Amino acid sequence: MKNRLTRFLSFGLIAGMALGSVSCGKTSSKAETPEPEEESDSTVYQVGIISSEDNTYYNTMQAGFVDALKDTIGEEHLEFSSAYIDEEHNGESICKDYLSKNVNLIYANGRSALTSASIATMETPIVATGIHDFQTTLHIISDGAWDRHTGRNVTGITAFPAMAEQLSLLIEATPQLNAVGLLYIAGDTDAIYQNELLERYLNQAGIPWKEYEVTLDSNEASTDEEASSEEEEVVEETEVKHDSVITPMDIVKASGKEGANTNITSIGQTSIISGLLSHDSVRTPRVSTRWNAYRESSLRTVAKSILSVLSKEDCDEETLTEAFPDYSEDLITYLMENREELTEDDLTAKLVSESSSYLTSEDEAPTITEIVTQAATECSVFYFSAGSSLVKDIEEITTIAHENGVSTVAGDNEIGAYTLVDFYYDPYDMGYRAGKQAQRILVNGEDPADIKVGLPTDSDYVKLYNASVAELFQMNFPKSFSEFHEYLETYVPGSNTRRATTAEAE
Length: 506
Description:
Layout: H1 2-23, E1 45-51, H2 56-73, E2 78-84, H3 91-100, E3 105-109, H4 111-120, E4 126-131, H5 134-138, E5 154-158, H6 163-173, E6 180-185, H7 189-205, E7 209-214, H8 229-239, H9 291-310, H10 317-323, H11 329-337, H12 344-357, H13 368-378, E8 381-384, H14 394-403, E9 407-410, H15 413-416, E10 421-425, H16 427-442, E11 461-465, H17 467-472, E12 481-483, H18 484-490, H19 502-505
Parallel strand pairs: 1-2, 1-3, 3-4, 4-5, 6-7, 6-8, 8-9, 9-10, 11-12
Antiparallel strand pairs: 10-11
């Protein structure tokens, strides 16, 4: 485009000079210099595509990526090779094959795909999508807030959800928002990353929270994406323990006043968590500084109810059991034996003690059912991070939650099929934005290290609610929400994506 414009201006300048000569009474040649023929561009870019697995989510992102390159470069200038990681094809072999063919760029779809590509080459440009935490995946260390430059041959578009919007969704979905339970699987670093950032927003809003770590047997644990074949061994080793060998550095800076403040302000959700594969420390589930005060207050209310029942002359063990069916036989016996001496303070302390020891009294690690049941007695809403590894157990978890009147919020629509509310972020649009980054690298020669990892904006999200779950809670949602199944059954991925053209790209 620039060459054509230069030739046009040069030709115009020559013509102007010729006309000027005629006006001055000087003769000029009538012969015109013909414009040289424009050379056709025969460049063909080789693009290798690697996906973490073969599923609709990744395939839709890939379609957006490919369409963006075709729109901006032209299909005749592109050759694509694609493969996905499975039992027969590991990421390392796929990337080695692409590099042997001298591809101009690798598109990595998902965490394990990006890990394989980033290990395979430090030179060939890599554009990635489906990544919740680029920093942990690429082991980027920073002393402060990350500026979203990887500093190497990688860029892309993050699948990381906006935390301020997630908190707003929690508030809208839970009329009585007393405390938030954050459930995750041991070793799920993406979930830990998102949880810790959301916790900062919860602290700002004055909302108590508690993490609940679910530990599965190594053969049952489902991690959507593993960092690499070597790191899989680390994950499997940690999943059989209650404490995962992970050390997030808590560097995120909080802003805003302490106390109940639901006017959410951005507090730097791109800040880092590093050292996630450190073997010299152990990360245990965290609890809000407000948690103890919250639990004591809520259990004091329960204590008053118990004392009210005990004060009745006809109260016996059967009466107590009917009034408090979740209480153990030992606790019922204790209440009956001490009914005359119990005070509100004593009973509150007893209930706090019973609650804290519930999951640690067994010889074996608690089951998912036990953990979720306990969490349901303590929280008013559960939060599941985007891309959570709890996907295989989510139906069981949400069933327990809903039966106990606990709201559920998901960061993506895979788990959102079972929760009360969730966000939908069009994967086609994510891939398309990544394709436009790839065009800048291939055609304009930009360095991936100089291109910021892209973040979604508020407008990228659609708030969804599940009608069947909403009916259980007798809740009605405003027009700003769409019904989960109706929306996804009718929405065509890419419908809201603004398509580019080769002219715009130039």
